[in-house]
Amino acid sequence: MTSATQVPTRREEILALAAGLFATRGFAGSTVREIADAAGILSGSLYHHFDSKESMADEILRAFLDEILADYHAAIAAAEGPVDALRRLVHVAYGALGPHRAAIAVMMNDWNLLVQQPRFAYLRDRADETERLWVGVIADGVAAGAFRADVDPRMIYRFLRDAIWVSVRWFQPDGSTSAHDLADRYCDMLLGGLTRDQGGPT
Amino acid sequence: MTSATQVPTRREEILALAAGLFATRGFAGSTVREIADAAGILSGSLYHHFDSKESMADEILRAFLDEILADYHAAIAAAEGPVDALRRLVHVAYGALGPHRAAIAVMMNDWNLLVQQPRFAYLRDRADETERLWVGVIADGVAAGAFRADVDPRMIYRFLRDAIWVSVRWFQPDGSTSAHDLADRYCDMLLGGLTRDQGGPT
DNA sequence: GTCTATATTGAGATAGAC
DNA sequence: GTCTATCTCAATATAGAC
């Protein structure tokens, strides 16, 4: 909403390059010199735009988490029943694989390292809020009889979350399948196991 | 077989400590000084046991990958049909979450960084062989009619692999559920969606 | 097997000119 | 907004004594 997404500023260009490096080489494995090289400037010049390497990762993750949390809230508000809500949440998550690919990779690879630093403590808050939203939807579905009752909603949430995010490692949204195709396939596979109207496994 | 697993040697003790650090702080985010501190020695003394920090990660990953590949082969050889084979593979993978927790965390967090180095090129070979085994089982199941035919075996494999490994981030095998409980739960959820004898989702 | 001591490199970051 | 030049510190790694 407030963040500029028109023609990218130099600052945003550099941030995107940094994100790409963090995503492929990890946060600690990327150097400010590599970032500067990618931007075609010298490492010292980076500090005209950013305070530190950490502040780059901070901005990358914050932008992603704020946007997706808002999208989650909107998805739940628009949903008709828990099954629809879960489908919408899955689509929101997969939809972020394109525009926020690098942020998701950073989140997957460097979460443990970053949350240990005080300045990244907000990551936990965002993660907790996200978990509350998803677990609420799943628990509602169990209560309503839409999902089988012999599952732990928290465990289900974690399976889903991880399976979705980690696909950032291999999924190329430009390929034959779009992110929403993938979301549909995943929901089909998932709901077949989550919904209760099937026989037992063979 | 050949590797000693009796009373751990000093070398093995240090390796386990290094693995723990790599797992929580990442490979690039861990320093040899931290490893030495954990072992109660000075950083220089580490080089009596190991050539380099890389060689530590090398040993950690190699031991894990060699063992689990052997277990995968054995699981497939012992299985009666594709569904049983898939269940067994899932159990082997989850079974590694206890003894190889740190190696799995390193694999999850630092895979991209490490495979870029020539000395870790073998990681790709192991990954390819693993994928062949799993995809073969899934494809056999589709051919035999045990799994629904509208799935891409490679995509299914990746969903499974990632969902299993990434649970190293939150699963504590010492808790109320064992790794094999988790494997069973996951298989139930999964096969309900993979096997074809259910109605459509609600 | 560990220590002392240190070499050497590369990292993040800064000051001021242009 | 970038460059030149450089500081400072921390990183991996080594040599030889104990």
Please, could you describe this protein's structure?
Two copies of one chain form a homodimer. By secondary structure, the first copy, chain A, is an all-alpha fold. Chain A contains eight helices and no strands. Chain A is elongated and about 60 Å long. The N and C termini of chain A lie far apart (50 Å). In chain A, 40% of the residues are buried. At the A-B interface, helix 5, helix 7 and helix 8 of A face helix 5, helix 7 and helix 8 of B. The first copy, chain A, binds a DNA duplex (18 and 18 nucleotides) through loops.
SSE succession of chain A: HHHHHHHH
Indicate the low-confidence ranges of chain A by residue numbers: 196-202
Which oligomerization state do the chains in this entry correspond to?
A: homodimer
Please state the CA-atom Rg of chain A, rounded to the nearest Å.
19 Å
As a percent range, the share of helical residues of chain A equals 55-70%
Give the structural class of chain A: mainly alpha
Q: What is the 3D form of chain A?
A: elongated
% residues in beta strands of chain A:
under 5%
**Largest Cβ-defined interface:** A-B, 44 and 44 residues
What is the mean predicted local confidence, pLDDT of chain A? Answer: 90
Largest sheet properties of chain A? none
Count the strands of chain A? 0
How many helices of chain A? The count is 8
CA-to-CA gap between the ends of chain A?
50 Å
